[in-house]
Amino acid sequence: MRIGVVCPYSWDVPGGVQFHVRDLAEHLIRLGHEVSVLAPSDDETPLPPYVVSAGRAVPVPYNGSVARLNFGFLSAARVRRWVHEGDFEVLHIHEPATPSLSLLACWAAQGPIVATFHTSNPRSRAMIAAYPILQPALEKISARIAVSEYARRTLVEHLGGDAVTIPNGVDVGFFADAEPQPEWQGRPEAPTIGFIGRIDEPRKGLPVLMKALPAIVREAPGTRLLVAGRGDEEEAVAALPDELRSHVEFLGMVSDEDKARLLRSVDLYVAPNTGGESFGIILVEAMSAGAPVLASDLDAFEQVLDGGEAGELFANESAEALAAGALRLLHDPERRAGLRARGTRHVRRFDWSTVGADVLAVYETVADGAASVAPDERIGLRARLGLARD
Amino acid sequence: MPTVTTLIWIALALLLIGVYLSWTAGRLDRLHARIDAARAALDATLLRRASIAQELATAGVLDPAASIVLYQAAHDARQAEEDQREVAESELTQALRAVFADSAQIEAVRAAPGGEDTAQELTAAVRRVPMARRFHNDAVRAARALRRHRKVRWFRLAGHAPFPLAFEMDDEPPPALADRSQ
């Protein structure tokens, strides 16, 4: 199958959508499909052979933060050319409601179009205002995919219609086969707790974990907290009493390999995120690596953890609940072993072999018998009135 | 002179309205095409499911009672008239759920020679029906929303195209086939 994938966010900036697009493209290529990814990127960034650059993204304030987006005539023309030259059997657009490449692609193409909705933003005023503009473009999408039941609900409420739920994929084997790192492994009297995420992004929840740490160390004195992610380390521990700072180790940005090894090594993985998550891929990665998971009870997390069956949940933003949950798990090796076993079984549905098959099923459903994707030639008024000469 | 200017403005306004209506008609036309494609895809998945069910029923792998139930339901689904289709397909879904309520049945199918392929095909078929149906009904919803709009009703932009109807049926797959952690 010839598949065109559109990624709206810069290829050179790490992010959930970009990783998802990369893994999906590589999985499909391994299965023997022809895949071309259109993504914004700086000209200097080396790109994998299947990625086509749509030019540099421009930083624009959008939706409360600075987003790097692509728009304008030049980008639109590039999208059109890519669609024309690719002659794809199916076009897969990610985040079609973002005012960037995805929306342009939606606008410029016709034929079998599949779209994946990643976010579950609460309804924004801009979205309501933009609705009449978006609607004609979104109408062209033949099949919508939401990454979680939660994302699907948001989509149904905001845009109407329906979507099938296909979770984000994870290479389970990569995490399951990682070699544990001895210095990150805990001992019964000195267990380790892992955290991965931006340090300076409060939504990732490190402040909640820092607030819970004194209570955890009081009951389990040898506990070490391993923090991987970029951000200001001094600021992160500023609220901690001096004697507790030695319990926190910062690993900085880690490679994918080290991330897998970290998750393989720790006795407990804590995800204290306070909001803004539509899926929770890190939980799946932790479970794949066999780490028992303790997460805040966000809708998305609850769903990934099978309603609390595959990992434990605590009341969101409550440091006391986090500390209580962590201590209960740290003092109960049997429960942790149970969670490991349950998690290992549970993650199979998120493995690329399962997820990829579902995505392909969607492609086949919309592409069967349909003409391939082509640039959308708008029919002029003359043609509609029968005045155009061929 | 003012009358000429007024006339020009009126002509310009009419032209703009014309372009807008023409564009809306194009949008509607594309939505109808999308419904047709989605309907064809839905038909194909339903037929695929009925065929594989019938194949299983006549293969002699299942016990005679289950075979007859499945055969009857699959046969009815394939033969159903258009207005009976939703009921017949729902009954096939229920028959499949009843026959494969016990995961031992699907194990029996897998154990038969060539059964692994058949089981996989059946799993794919029961999973694709809800997918195709959702895509179809999504297209129907979008078209209906546009057709209910004043501009479309007053100017009869939809022409003679019939008002699109959603396809409603029970498409819950048997739990033994829907388990994704296998």
From TrEMBL, chain A:
Domain Glycosyltransferase subfamily 4-like N-terminal: 14-172
SUPFAM superfamilies from the UniProt entry: UDP-Glycosyltransferase/glycogen phosphorylase
Key words of the record: Glycosyltransferase, Transferase
The UniProt record lists the keyword Disulfide bond: no
Domain of life from the UniProt record: Bacteria
Xref: Gene3D superfamilies: Glycogen Phosphorylase B (3.40.50.2000)
Pfam families reported for this sequence: Glyco_trans_1_4, Glyco_transf_4
Gene Ontology molecular functions: hexosyltransferase activity
An annotated GO BP: carbohydrate derivative biosynthetic process
Xref: PANTHER family: SULFOQUINOVOSYL TRANSFERASE SQD2
Protein name (Swiss-Prot/TrEMBL): GDP-mannose-dependent alpha-(1-2)-phosphatidylinositol mannosyltransferase
Natural source organism: Streptomyces cacaoi
From TrEMBL, chain B:
Chain segments annotated as transmembrane: 6-25
UniProt keyword terms in alphabetical order: Coiled coil, Membrane, Transmembrane, Transmembrane helix
Keyword Transmembrane helix: yes
InterPro entries: LemA-like_dom_sf
Gene3D superfamilies from the UniProt entry: LemA-like domain (1.20.1440.20)
Residue ranges of coiled coil: 71-98
Protein name: Membrane protein
Species of provenance: Streptomyces cacaoi
